[in-house]
């Protein structure tokens, strides 16, 4: 649960791990996006998420393997008070709205604001306009979503958990934005760990190699 | 450490010469009020103390006189506007330390000295308490009696032993001495068993007399000859070492076998000539023990869920249903008659409606009854939930509620009955869905106390992994395990919860029983919070209900029969009438306020259950009646 990154040995070629949280109004498709990304499946009648769920999936970006530790949360406002527990310490977030439902877009904006205030300063946020397959019932224009994202420095994509469109792309784009391991050794002859920046920022952790 | 004026008395003492332990955010609880401060174990000259200093000693609104505490530093010339004064107790006066998990699952201790009991002291983590105990072992020799570490004043602690050792300079080889010194210096890093081994070694070798504790069956294994610690390390961690663990896990008892199902034939014997249900207690006990026959549920559940009173006649029930039918129509028409124009100005309604609509579409759609597009039963769920929003407007619809309604509708296949049964069910659990989440938080804290009591190794693991908030059980408790079992199993589980004859929240024991069943993989695979959450979520539909219910009942009886049930479990979970803790001999009663609020019956140690009280489930009457002789004390 804690946001502290796993301590991979510095020289190990193990996958880099990132904590990612999905946020957004109920029924926008958070669980469906995860299910598509992790298992390649889609359930028309995906049941509501009670409490939270945790899954993992790896992607390879530019030859670097990144493991996402994905936290899927319950969407209803009523359970809002539990959310900080899950986004605390997250290195990435996907804020999801449903393009056929304006209210969910407004709710997504309030999530962005909340993360700006409460989450890690270096958190990478993606805004996902989901249910792209229903664009004939669209209530939020692409331009609107992308303008808001640009303004707030977010990755933006319209996705469909149903068809799979853009789903893994969101994760890949996030992976690209996250601080990455240099494939070449640094001046210490060691591989710099992906979260070194963060640890240095936090006053240095056990895996910190900033004092050379 | 202190810079306020009411500590003049402290300044007369020698300065701190050594600091062994320090913990911030330690709260002292007195008269329902907690004050935060710093807790330390330190040495001033020749004498070692435990000291607690409040962060802010001036609290004008909450003056308390602590004159009667005696040992507490207190400036009597001060105006009575001083808050909690600092606390200082010479370690040599400590008689016992009792450990508990208090409110909201926090670790706390109650220290008794030769003259009194100190206020309850809350620590930020269980680990803080462990470290404290480790530290105090330098000065004191403890004998563990259940949750309480009792000081054996006839024997010296490690510190004293070390001093003797230093003076002697003989007794042991240099190598061993160094090893001990290292452990001694790094007490914070020393593991529990590591230090206790050293202590044992020292006690055996230096004090040179056999370790004997009254009542301990392990004294025969005491170390009487010097043995190098290396050898000790290879010995199984048992015998003497055990005395340093704060708790042993509760022994597992054999699961209670499930009874026969409650059948139609039996059910028919429970009616009088006018159709009243009689011998309700017996009936409930049977259902609790073996569940209802599936065909019988439609008939029995309206009683279990308070649609009908047990003592209603057949005729009365017809009238009740007639009445409920009308009421349902009224409530339904309230939301059905909202015009589109009105709706535009009615955000709350729109939000609720949208949520209900989305959720019924994804509730139990894998079941035949709800499967397929345009399934009319989905629309029925929608109607019932919308109607419930009118019935309980303050609560409205909260996610999870559709999970509670769906099995009821599947059972009754009748909207009217399903709706009112749902109302009865919601009356029991509505607090689960309140905005403040207090109910669920409280249940999670109670669960935490139970797991701590039953299996401290599991608890310690969870705490180490930042998981002792038990949030991975949130879903279990929110909707009474609905997602964890399917088919008849969830119905049987709910019946058991509704007919539980003990005056307790049985879901806590069910949850504990499941966790104990899963404790080995959780500990051995060193699961972190994320792993545990996934593991627990994945248990869904893979839990053997019979096994769980058997284990739950045996667990319940096992806990209830323990002589040392912690205060919190006794009072809040088992709801046993409580007398002030008196076994440790004290003037200070941390439970004074509680005792004043609740009239205390003479039957302090008697468990109150409705089983003892012939159909009475009113807690007030339970308190005044003289109840069973189910004593919690072990047979003398
Ligand atoms: N058409 C369509 N439906 C979707 C899509 N993603 C999710 N859904 C449906 O929307 C509903 C809610 O999805 P869910 O993943 O449970 O949302 P969550 O509450 O945000 O986790 C389900 O019925 C899904 O089948 C999508 O991309 N297209
Ligand atoms: Mg979900």
Biggest β-sheet of chain A: count, sense, barrel?
A: 6 strands, mixed
Helical percentage of chain B: 40-55%
What best-fitting shape of chain A do the alpha-carbon axes yield? globular
What is the distance, rounded to the nearest whole angstrom, between the alpha carbons of the first and last residues of chain B? 49 Å
Strand order of the largest sheet of chain B: 4-3-2-1-7-6-5-9-8
Mean of residue pLDDT values of chain A: 82
Alpha-beta content class of chain B: alpha+beta
Largest sheet of chain B: 9 strands, antiparallel
Describe what this molecule looks like in 3D.
- The complex is a heterodimer of chains A (212) and B (636).
- Chain A is 28% helix and 22% strand.
- Chain A is of the alpha/beta class and 212 residues long.
- Chain A has one domain: 3-Layer(aba) Sandwich (Rossmann fold).
- In chain A, strands 2-3-1-4-5-6 form a six-stranded mixed β-sheet, with helices on both faces.
- Chain A is globular, with a radius of gyration of 17 Å.
- In chain A, 45% of the residues are buried.
- Chain B is an alpha+beta fold and 636 residues long.
- Chain B folds into three domains: 3-232, Roll (PH-domain like); 276-432, Orthogonal Bundle (Helicase, Ruva Protein, domain 3), CATH 1.10.8.270; 436-629, Cyclin A, domain 1 (Orthogonal Bundle), CATH 1.10.472.80.
- Chain B has 26 helices and nine strands.
- A nine-stranded antiparallel β-sheet of chain B has the order 4-3-2-1-7-6-5-9-8.
- In chain B, helix 8 (280-290) packs across helix 19 (488-499), helix 10 packs across helix 15 (415-429) and helix 12 runs antiparallel to helix 13 (376-391).
- The two termini of chain B are 49 Å apart.
- In chain B, 39% of the residues are buried.
- Chain A binds chain B through residues 1-2, 26-27, 44-48, 50-55, 69, 71, 74-76, 78-79, 81-82, 85, 103, and chain B through 351, 354-355, 358-359, 361-366, 398-400, 402-403, 433, 435, 437, 465-467, 471-472, 474-475, 478-479, 483, 528-531, 533-534, 537.
């Amino acid at each position: 649960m804690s946001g502290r990154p796993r301590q991979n040995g510095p020289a190990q070629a193990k996958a880099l791990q990132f904590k990612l949280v999905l946020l957004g109004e109920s029924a926008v498709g958070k669980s469906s996006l995860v299910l598509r990304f992790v298992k390649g499946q889609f359930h028309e009648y995906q049941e509501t998420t009670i409490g939270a769920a945790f899954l993992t999936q790896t992607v390879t970006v530019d030859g670097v393997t990144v493991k996402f530790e994905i936290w899927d949360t319950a969407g209803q406002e009523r359970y809002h008070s539990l959310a900080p527990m899950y986004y605390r310490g997250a290195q990435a977030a996907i804020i999801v709205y449903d393009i056929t439902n304006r209210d969910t877009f407004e709710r997504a904006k309030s999530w962005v604001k909340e993360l700006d205030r409460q989450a890690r300063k270096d958190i990478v946020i993606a805004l996902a306009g989901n249910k792209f397959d229903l664009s004939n019932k669209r209530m939020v224009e692409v331009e609107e979503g992308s303008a808001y994202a640009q303004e707030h420095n977010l990755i933006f994509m319209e996705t469909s958990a149903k068809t799979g469109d853009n789903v893994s792309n969101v994760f890949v784009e996030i992976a690209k934005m996250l601080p990455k391991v240099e494939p070449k050794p640094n001046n210490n002859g060691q591989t710099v760990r992906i979260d070194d920046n963060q640890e240095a920022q936090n006053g240095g952790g056990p895996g910190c190699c900033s004092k050379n | 450490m202190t810079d306020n004026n009411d500590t003049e008395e402290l300044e007369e003492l020698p300065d701190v010469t050594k600091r062994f332990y320090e913990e911030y955010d330690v709260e002292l609880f007195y008269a329902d009020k907690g004050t935060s401060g710093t807790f330390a174990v330190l040495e001033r000259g020749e004498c070692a103390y435990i000291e607690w200093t409040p962060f802010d000693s001036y609290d004008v609104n909450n003056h308390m006189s602590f004159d009667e505490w005696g040992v507490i530093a207190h400036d009597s010339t001060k105006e009575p506007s001083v808050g909690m004064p600092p606390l200082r107790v010479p370690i040599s006066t400590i008689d016992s330390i009792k450990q508990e998990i208090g409110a909201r699952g926090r670790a706390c201790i109650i220290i008794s000295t030769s003259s009194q009991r100190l206020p309850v002291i809350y620590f930020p983590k269980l680990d803080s308490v462990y470290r404290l105990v480790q530290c105090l072992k330098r000065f004191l020799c403890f004998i563990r009696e259940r949750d309480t570490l009792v000081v054996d004043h006839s024997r010296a602690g490690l510190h004293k032993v070390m001093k003797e050792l230093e003076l002697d300079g003989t007794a042991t080889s240099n190598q061993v001495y160094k090893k001990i010194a290292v452990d001694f210096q790094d007490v914070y890093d020393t593991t529990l068993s590591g230090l206790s081994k050293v202590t044992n070694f020292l006690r055996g070798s230096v004090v040179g007399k056999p370790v004997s504790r009254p009542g301990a069956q392990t004294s025969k294994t005491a170390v009487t000859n010097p043995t190098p610690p290396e050898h000790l390390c290879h010995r199984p961690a048992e015998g003497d070492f055990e005395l340093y663990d704060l708790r042993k896990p509760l022994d597992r008892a054999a699961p209670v076998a499930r009874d026969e199902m409650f059948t139609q034939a039996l059910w028919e014997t429970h009616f009088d000539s006018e159709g009243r249900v009689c011998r309700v207690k017996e009936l409930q006990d049977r259902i609790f023990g073996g569940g209802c026959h599936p065909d019988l549920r439609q008939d029995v559940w309206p009683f279990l869920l308070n649609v009908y009173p047990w003592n209603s006649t057949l005729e009365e029930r017809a009238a009740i249903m007639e009445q409920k039918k009308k009421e349902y129509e009224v409530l339904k028409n309230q939301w059905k008659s909202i015009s589109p124009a009105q709706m535009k100005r009615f955000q709350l309604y729109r939000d609720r409606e949208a949520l209900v609509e989305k959720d019924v579409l994804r509730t139990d759609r894998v079941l035949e009854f709800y499967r397929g597009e345009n399934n009319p039963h989905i629309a029925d769920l929608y109607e019932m939930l919308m109607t419930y929003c009118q019935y309980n407007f303050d609560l409205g619809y909260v996610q999870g509620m559709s999970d509670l309604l769906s099995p009821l509708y599947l059972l009754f296949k009748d909207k009217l009955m399903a709706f009112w049964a749902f109302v009865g069910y919601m009356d029991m659990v509505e607090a689960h869905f309140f905005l403040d989440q207090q109910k669920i938080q409280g249940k999670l804290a109670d669960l935490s106390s139970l797991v701590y009591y039953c299996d401290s190794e599991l608890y310690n693991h969870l705490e180490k992994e930042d998981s002792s908030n038990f949030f991975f059980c949130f879903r279990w408790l929110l909707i009474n395990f609905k997602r964890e079992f399917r088919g008849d199993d969830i119905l049987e589980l709910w019946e058991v919860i509704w007919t539980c004859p003990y005056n307790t929240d049985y879901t806590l024991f069910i949850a504990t029983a499941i966790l104990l069943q899963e404790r080995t993989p959780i500990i051995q695979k060193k699961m972190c919070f994320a792993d545990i959450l996934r593991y627990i979520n994945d248990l869904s539909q893979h839990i053997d209900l019979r096994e769980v219910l058997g284990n739950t009942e045996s667990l319940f009886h096992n806990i209830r029969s323990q002589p040392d049930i912690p205060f919190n479990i006794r009072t809040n979970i088992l709801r046993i009438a409580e007398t002030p803790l008196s076994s440790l001999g004290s003037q200070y009663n941390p439970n004074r306020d509680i005792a004043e609020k609740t009239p205390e019956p003479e039957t302090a140690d008697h468990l109150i259950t409705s089983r003892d009280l012939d159909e009475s489930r009113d807690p007030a009457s339970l308190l005044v009646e003289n109840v069973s002789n189910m004593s919690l004390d072990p047979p003398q």
